[in-house]
Amino acid sequence: MYTKRNYNFWMTFNWSRRPFIIGLLYALPIAALNHFTEIDFSLPWQPISVLGISVAFYLGFKNNSSYDRTWEARKIWGGIVNGSRTFGAAVNSFIQTGDKSEDLKIRQRLIYRHIAWLTALRYQLRLSRDWEHHEDRVKGLYSPIVCEVYFNDIDREVSNLISDEEFQGYKPKANIATQMMATQARELQALHDLGYFDNFRHMEFHRLIAEFYADQGRSERIKNFPFPRQYASVALWNTFVFTALLPWGLLSIFSEDTDAWHIWLTVPFSGLITWVFFLMEKIGDYSENPFEGAYNDVPITSISRAIEIDLREMLGETDVPKPIAAVDGFLM
Amino acid sequence: MYTKRNYNFWMTFNWSRRPFIIGLLYALPIAALNHFTEIDFSLPWQPISVLGISVAFYLGFKNNSSYDRTWEARKIWGGIVNGSRTFGAAVNSFIQTGDKSEDLKIRQRLIYRHIAWLTALRYQLRLSRDWEHHEDRVKGLYSPIVCEVYFNDIDREVSNLISDEEFQGYKPKANIATQMMATQARELQALHDLGYFDNFRHMEFHRLIAEFYADQGRSERIKNFPFPRQYASVALWNTFVFTALLPWGLLSIFSEDTDAWHIWLTVPFSGLITWVFFLMEKIGDYSENPFEGAYNDVPITSISRAIEIDLREMLGETDVPKPIAAVDGFLM
Amino acid sequence: MYTKRNYNFWMTFNWSRRPFIIGLLYALPIAALNHFTEIDFSLPWQPISVLGISVAFYLGFKNNSSYDRTWEARKIWGGIVNGSRTFGAAVNSFIQTGDKSEDLKIRQRLIYRHIAWLTALRYQLRLSRDWEHHEDRVKGLYSPIVCEVYFNDIDREVSNLISDEEFQGYKPKANIATQMMATQARELQALHDLGYFDNFRHMEFHRLIAEFYADQGRSERIKNFPFPRQYASVALWNTFVFTALLPWGLLSIFSEDTDAWHIWLTVPFSGLITWVFFLMEKIGDYSENPFEGAYNDVPITSISRAIEIDLREMLGETDVPKPIAAVDGFLM
Amino acid sequence: MYTKRNYNFWMTFNWSRRPFIIGLLYALPIAALNHFTEIDFSLPWQPISVLGISVAFYLGFKNNSSYDRTWEARKIWGGIVNGSRTFGAAVNSFIQTGDKSEDLKIRQRLIYRHIAWLTALRYQLRLSRDWEHHEDRVKGLYSPIVCEVYFNDIDREVSNLISDEEFQGYKPKANIATQMMATQARELQALHDLGYFDNFRHMEFHRLIAEFYADQGRSERIKNFPFPRQYASVALWNTFVFTALLPWGLLSIFSEDTDAWHIWLTVPFSGLITWVFFLMEKIGDYSENPFEGAYNDVPITSISRAIEIDLREMLGETDVPKPIAAVDGFLM
Amino acid sequence: MYTKRNYNFWMTFNWSRRPFIIGLLYALPIAALNHFTEIDFSLPWQPISVLGISVAFYLGFKNNSSYDRTWEARKIWGGIVNGSRTFGAAVNSFIQTGDKSEDLKIRQRLIYRHIAWLTALRYQLRLSRDWEHHEDRVKGLYSPIVCEVYFNDIDREVSNLISDEEFQGYKPKANIATQMMATQARELQALHDLGYFDNFRHMEFHRLIAEFYADQGRSERIKNFPFPRQYASVALWNTFVFTALLPWGLLSIFSEDTDAWHIWLTVPFSGLITWVFFLMEKIGDYSENPFEGAYNDVPITSISRAIEIDLREMLGETDVPKPIAAVDGFLM
Questions:
Q1: Contact yes or no for D232 and E6 at CB 8 A
Q2: Which cellular component terms (GO) are annotated to the entry (chains A, B, C, D, E) (predicted)?
Q3: Using one digit for the tens of pLDDT, what is the confidence trace for D144-170?
Q4: Is residue E201 part of a domain?
Q5: CA angle at B253 for the pair B251 and B256, rounded to the nearest 5°
Q6: Total domain count for chain D?
Q7: Looking at the partner chain, which of A81, A92, A287 has a beta carbon nearest the beta carbon of E217?
Q8: Do C131 and D3 touch (CB under 8 A)?
Q9: Do C93 and B186 touch (CB under 8 A)?
Q10: How far apart are CA E46 and CA E48, in angstroms?
Q11: Domain encompassing residue E33
């Protein structure tokens, strides 16, 4: 997530200059041919204009849907924040063993496993998928595939939170976060059986676990079900068709002018309009996958850290980690 | 569901080439008549352009609604994932007979029936409906009608999960999945009556059953209530009217040009614009029915399998089935 | 609800041919006057085109809202399906008198009253309202007003479900369905007082009743609060203004052509564009009221029947009614 | 709320004729100047057309948002209906003192206070706000400000429902409805303390109170937070700018015609397009505030009455008030 | 929030005059060059018009999203109102120590801490963020950064509500509001342990705390996650590209006219269209951040005050603070 007011023009342009350049290079021979030969290659502008407006609608629909995906992803992680705080407050008030230091130990264990779950979920969500923009992954932050590096990264982060034995038990499982939460559920039942809280409170804990599963599952839904590729592809190929016809249509307009050199204006104009359309196409494309480990991601690392700080402070800890800061205006 | 970044151009084109070809064939005699006779058949472009923009709006509305249907279907199955995990965690913590092996047997029975319910639901959802695209069904995956093959398919998949006797009891019922869940409810009451869990926990189980019924019913709503055919038909006939007028309008534009051969450009241009409009029309049309057993389906087989793996791993099983893999980029 | 893939062209056209014909008849004298007199009646096309695009937007907004009404109506009835199944499962597991045949009798009584409630609600929803399309009501299915026929129809359908005495008690009430559900609530309290289920289970029943009231109220909201008539009227009059100007504008375009007879093309062209715009106007208009007893209704008769079948099968009945079948492709 | 199928044309036109007339009066001297002087005042049409389409989009966005406000308001009051019925059913089944006549007295007291709350809320919601259309308030129905008349109106309506002493206690409070509901909560606790219902049932009552507070608060949100004035103002001023440029642009089109008198067509045409645009602007504007006491209001008086009838009939009363009828097609 | 019916034209214009002036200044030399040199600098209008319409779509999408952010913010704070009233009613009915004056003291303590939480949340939400419009902050109302002034402001407001000791404990915490609510949770558990209310009621309190955490977290989500800057930047740069091409395109139109002086009309026309487009761009931009301490903010100070009044009146206090009044039509 970018945290400054606007991407400046050159940043925007640099990121998206390919279609501009290709637009120029494509229009150049067309203009040249028209200028140096006698043959009229031009196409009438009117139908191309209807095409352009239709494509702009379609891109609007796509941008809307992509934005909804990003915004929903942020909502889900907002939900995780809220559930985690409620869980923290519940753990700190509901659990009573009669022995303050035992209370603290149990509370810590539950809250630390919760932070471990956040960590595992975060890593799982940033594994790479076929339809994502691998070329834009922030280097070194997350492993793109399940491998030894991946497990080491998670292990390093959770080693202070759960026992190594517990972690090793999760490694062969298909979905680590799911099994962590199941452990949490079993432990809560065990604590209840020990009489540390009653049925009413246990059921509230159970509903929080249901909520965490729901938020995890919602994140995974956005991760695993891309903006349907048929819709995305039509956006791409429609933009492509429109911009492919563009310079031929511009020719007919510029050739109406009396100044013969005006024909060359086809080239920059083509580049510019091609750029604007592909910019609108790309901006949606690059916001479709809010967990791909790239710069426009929903900042789940930073959100997880904020949750960790709040929960540790509820436990009375003072030596809490610092919030994640933006680097060059990007917050991950 | 397609899992690669984009359908490539030829894949897209091949899938939708019919309107392109028909567009060509329709425009050809029109251009020829105009060229070889003296009569001016052309229609003015301006009103056709207003028509085109209006039709593009309407298609935008249709695409939006179709997308919402697909996305809602995915959300519902995401909800089934979340509910199933919570159910798994609850079954594994709440049920306590005092005898570990008895615990496991009961837990298994409940979870296996849950997987059987998923299977039955999945098969029911992929029976065919009048308004679906039967020509695009993936061959052999699902039976299109209720018949012996259909029952055999389900039987084969659930034979390890529920007793044959139980399965035979479901066969005459109108809705197998509904009755399976009702059995689940009766069994939970019986287990409660045996004292294996108390009222609080029973009520949580009951609410999960209500949730599963809700998600089943939501899937069936999308299955059984198509995008209203009056809206779909207007999209189709409007696109048809626009593209039928198209070559006559293009004639008037190309005949303004001095080069007489330009008139023939009407033909490819007609084909192209017809193609773009019908592409936008079809893309929505083919995403309306997310459970029709075709390539753009929400991948419910794969989702069900993922649930099965998670639930079996919660039971401590290690010999779990593999996740469903995409075939040629398609995940079912 | 129409259940085939598309309304065919002539079906669509027939249903909406009035604006086409009026468009023709209106344009004819205009073209004739222009042709046979020397006076130029034409209006410039450009502003009319801006008007047309603006009206197309507005119709898009209206179609969207109408569709949302239909879809919400279907969602609500989907909710009734889900709640009813949960109710069925609850009734069949929760109620225990200790005597199996007594159990069955009570369960039957509750479930039959539930089906009676569905029936009453269904009839109430299909009474006619001032703003509905009375000319399109399916003949003989439902009485349009509260009268003896209306009560007889309901009585016939519920006579096997509740006692005649109970039914007579409802007749003077303003809202039969509401009072039926209130009876259900009182009976559940009485059954609880007899010790047939405990507080936990009673509260679940109570929440289901709250849900049924909510779904009933939501249906009534859509029934009783039309798409605001000010918005609907503006759509109508805007389309009217646009199509009234249309032939005058087309005149100016066709009179540019050298072929004098082209002026007559104004007539079919006017008819066609008028038809397309009114088609978009009407399609929303005829989907606004999903319970008006007409062909595009949400199929609440068929949904109610499906619920009845599921609930009776849960009771173990085998002599259940058949599902409602579509007639000529229409499902009510 | 208007209850007929459509506002007829003249009703619509009369209501919105101001912009038409001003459009005429504004265009007249412009056309005259152009006709009688030699100076060409015309502006080119093309950029004005882009402006027109852009403004039409913006109005579409505004109409959409206004409609959402009205529809949400209706949903909220639908929610109040549903909650009230559930409350009625709960009051009539849950409360058991052992003495039938005492039961009835208590049930009546609770339900009557509920109707009093509806009345107070209704009056509060129809106090006037700075941004509302005061000129359109239905005369005499509701007092626009808090004053003696206002309190007398409420007092008259609630005098049969709660004791005068109780009503006097509410008068100095900032929000009468809020305090009424708080009294309801205190009374329910007192009834519980007397043993008339147990904890389970008390908690259901408490959740209903939470729901009523939520629906009250949602109504107040729509009442107190207008469609943001910055968005509304931009719609207004954009429409204004477009229509101010309109006749100058039309001049350039009509002056192309050979018939000199055509220049005068600028005048009616200007009026007409100005009218269509301001009609679209006004229709949203007049649906923004669904509780302003004007003709397009959500009919909360009628809804409240329907609730009152249902609740009284649940109590077994037969002497219930009549439903509110529409007056001249308007239901309040 | 602005509370009058419309921003008047000059207010609107003044606020947004920069693009108008820059539009003028930018077009002036272009028109001059064209007039005084022989070179034709003009660009054809048609493609610029397609660009304009596409940009207008994109701005529509952006305005829609910004509006949704503001409206959601208002909904969240409406939720806080509703939850707070329910909390007030619950505190006043549920807590019973047996000693009326002790009851009052405890109720007061809980409600006052709730108001303190509202205050802290309000201050936190109005700290400034990188992407906000700092130039528009209302002076002196809120401190833009965490500093001594900030703590003093909060301290001053909460000093009558919670003990100084309690407040000092919150100061080192990352999120004061979160920890206040955690204290509330702990105190409620302690009160329950003293027997002042039972489990049922405690759980209702717990759910209210979960709700308050949810509403706090939702506010923070809108505060901390801006409208994605990539979307915002594309809106800005697209508008910029369109308006940069604008005067060159207008030149070609005005130079068609026979009156040579018409070329100068390019200048005001450019200014005007530039202004309309940037007005639509800015209006969304300035409604994106509903908690930035500027004039279009959701009025959280006023809402908090209204809650405070309602809650104090529930406690029976008569010496309650006045509602916040609008200043110059602005309510904060």
A1: yes
A2: plasma membrane
A3: 888 889 999 999 999 999 999 999 999
A4: yes
A5: 105
A6: 1
A7: A81
A8: yes
A9: yes
A10: 5
A11: 20-314
